[in-house]
Amino acid sequence: MLVRPKQGILDPQGEAVRVSLRKLGFAVGGARVGRLVDLEVEAPSSDEAKVQVERMCQALLANPLIESFEIEVEGT
Amino acid sequence: MSIRPRIAVLVFPGSNDDRDAAWALGALGADAQLVWHAEEALPRDTAAVVLPGGFSYGDYLRCGAIARFAPVLDSVRELAAAGGPVLGICNGFQILCEAGLLPGVLRRNRDLEFVCRDVRLRVERTDTVFTARCAPGQELTIPVKHGEGSWYADEDLYGELEAAGQLVLRYAEDCNGSVGDVAGVCNAERNVLGLMPHPEHAVDPLLGSGDGALLLAALVGAARERTLALA
Fold first, then answer.
1. How much is the ipTM here?
2. Distance from CA of A52 to the nearest CA of B (A)
């Protein structure tokens, strides 16, 4: 799952990355820094896995006041 | 005879202001007890709780996010629900927000700097047990030292908190980008307060300021009253 600073929320870390990249000569208009969490989940289906991870995000992995999250499920 | 009320100072792996807090509370007349995070219960007759500064659980994931699952936190919730005073300082404030005991969240400082200096604060509300000994609008000088102390609430929540008088302390100068320059917030019942500045580092004018003692002595006083009331 991928956690991002919510749209419209100041992201000082992303801003520092943007400024640094510009100093290196890259034409970067904006940068947002989030967090990637790889989880191994046992579930009968990918839908069920997604539901579980959604609950994990709400309980711990993201703070809904300032962060949004996206979940991607890969089956094995 | 004046009794020394028992105040629990929680200790998480990574706490580093626990002993300063215990020392300051002791100097102000409390029986301060360090309580390890894995304890299931608070010491008998605990009248108040302080969550100290530091970097509990290495600040992994988000500051305070993991500490809220510490076994001892259930007892803290019970004490808070029963009206007992709970004070969160710096990392303690972050933990109380993540635990849902206080509104909002602490984010990385706007300018990405670790801010470490004395700041001036304005007491906005004196109707909490923590600020009862301050005058409305009084300025206090208390040090801050944090990298993630920029308090945030969205517009709706901010408006609700302001209307309810829960924004207890504000920075009287630019500090970290907190919404509304908020430095300290209390819960709706007004018995749980979190603040980023460190009153335990400002209890002796010899070390720069004694203003923190105003807040901590009020907490000790409230803990004493509670102890007597429950006896």
1. 0.78
2. 19
